[in-house]
Amino acid sequence: xxxxxxxxxxxxxxxxxxxxxxxxxxxxxxxxxxxxxxxxxxxxxxxxxxxxxxxxxxxxxxxxxxxxxxxxxxxxxxxxxxxxxxxxxxxxxxxxxxxxxxxxxxxxxxxxxxxxxxxxxxxxxxxxxxxxxxxxxxxxxxxxxxxxxxxxxxxxxxxxxxxxxxxxxxxxxxxxxxxxxxxxxxxxxxxxxxxxxxxxxxxxxxxxxxxxxx
Length: 214
Prior knowledge:
The protein is α+β, with helices and mostly antiparallel strands.
């Protein structure tokens, strides 16, 4: 049920689940599992198949939670800290993407670009590590990738193109260096990070019940 709540109200981007909070969920919502079975009306099939970011699915799920679980929830604005991805002191070191250059094994990005893992050895030793090569990626894609490390990262570079680049892992972040708060530094790309603040959403559950039987 907790996954259903996060997907319905926060979205399919699971990195945002770490930064957008849902308060007052009961213990059973984390522990009990359910199956959701639904059918799309024939008149809605075309719209359903062409939806972006699962908007119709999320709307249907929100309605189901309100109907079947008597969910009452409200959204409020809260202040939070983030990292802002910006251009460094010099020009960005980014290669314009080559159209149609898609690796055989890759993870599709939210923008439609791709990234593929490159296995390596950490410090030349036996421990394996993973670098990531990006193809046709946007700076929003890079910010999203960095957000998986902890605090949210927001794209403030002003760069609107698509680029091919590699994110190379380092064993440990360098304390005190804003560029290496993550194990994938952005300085080699001519970028840097600075601390920032933002207003984001928090959802507060006022009422929720176990779903009514079928």
